[in-house]
Amino acid sequence: EVQLVQSGGGLVPPGGSLRLSCAASGFSFSTFWMTWLRQPPGKGPEWVANIKPDGSDTFYLESVQGRFTISRDNSQNSLYLQMNNLSPEDTAVYYCARIGPTGVVHWDYWGHGGLVTVSS
Amino acid sequence: QSVLTQPPSVSGAPGQRVTISCAGTSSNIGAGFDVHWYQQFPGRAPKLLIYTDTNRPSGVPDRFSGSKSGTSASLAITGLQAEDEAIYYCQSYDRRLSAYVFGTGTEVTVL
Q1: Residues near B11 by Cβ (< 8 Å), separated by ≥ 6?
Q2: Are A45 and B89 spatial neighbours (Cβ–Cβ below 8 Å)?
Q3: Are B104 and A44 in contact (CB < 8 Å)?
Q4: What's the pLDDT tens digit per position in B43-56?
Q5: Residue A42: helix, strand or coil by DSSP?
Q6: Where are the beta strands (DSSP E) in chain B?
Q7: Would you state the pLDDT for residue A102?
C-alpha cells in the first residue's frame, strides 16, 4: 500500500523558516517524480514544486522560487521542503504527492497534509 | 487567481446526472495539455478521480467520466449518490505561467 506520511508543520513568524518532511513507503520511491502542493484556508490546491526521481532537476512556482527548496533522500525514501523567508501568504496546508507513472503530471497519491501558519 | 474556471456549485437529486465544467484558455487546455480531476472531502487530501482527460484510476466507480473539447473540459457524475457530496477540482498545465494549475473548485450537493 502506498503511504506518504508527513511531518514538520507548525506556527512560524514572518521571515522565519520551516522544513517539511514526507516519508514514502509501498512503492519504488527512487523511480517517481515527487511534488509539494499547498492549499490556503478555504481555497483550492496550488502546485509548489516538483523534483526528478534522482533529484537532479527541480521546478518551482514563481512565487516561491529562491525561498523554497525541494529535495529528496532516496536512501531514506524521504522528500523534503525547506521554506525560508516565510510570509503570511504562505499559510496553507502543505501536501506531498506522487506524480503518476504515465509521464503526464497529475498526482495519484497524496500525503495527509500539514498545516503551516505564518503569523506573529 | 486560478486560470481554470469552474461553477461554484452544482446540485442534483440521488440517481441524477450532473456535470461540472472547467473553462480554460489557449495557454492551458486549449494548447492540448491534459486535464485531470480530483475529489476532496472537508479536512482530507484531494483524491485523483480522472487522469489524462478520460481515464479512471483503479477503484474509481465508472459513474465518474471525463471529457475535453477545445478550451474546456467536463466531469460527469451519473447515478448521483449521497457519498458524492464533495468539492471537485480540475487541473492542467499553463504554458504562459509555466505552472501546473487547478480550477476554482465546484461543490457538489446531493438534494
Answers
A1: B18, B108, B109, B110, B111
A2: yes
A3: yes
A4: 999 999 999 999 99
A5: coil
A6: 9-12, 18-23, 36-40, 47-50, 64-69, 72-77, 86-94, 99-102, 106-110
A7: 86
Nearest to A111 among B36, B45, B103 (CB): B45
The residues facing B48 across adjacent strands are B38
Residue B107 at interface with chain A, using a CB cutoff of 8 Å: no
Task: Determine what percent of chain A is predicted with pLDDT higher than 90.
Answer: 96
Asked whether B105 and B9 are in contact (CB, 8 A), the reply is: no
How far apart CA A17 and CA A68 sit, in angstroms, is 9
β B36-40/B47-50 pair status: antiparallel
Return the amino acid letter for B83: E
Q: Is B37 helix (H, G, I), strand (E, B) or coil?
A: strand
Smallest Cβ–Cβ distance between B34 and the set A104, A110, A113 belongs to: A104
For residues A119 and A12, what is the distance between their CA atoms, to the nearest angstrom?
Answer: 6
| Chain A contact set for B57 (CB, 8 A) | 108
| Interchain CB contact of A112 with B (< 8 Å) | yes
Q: Which residues of B touch A110 (CB under 8 A)?
A: 45-47
Single-letter code of the amino acid located at B68:
K
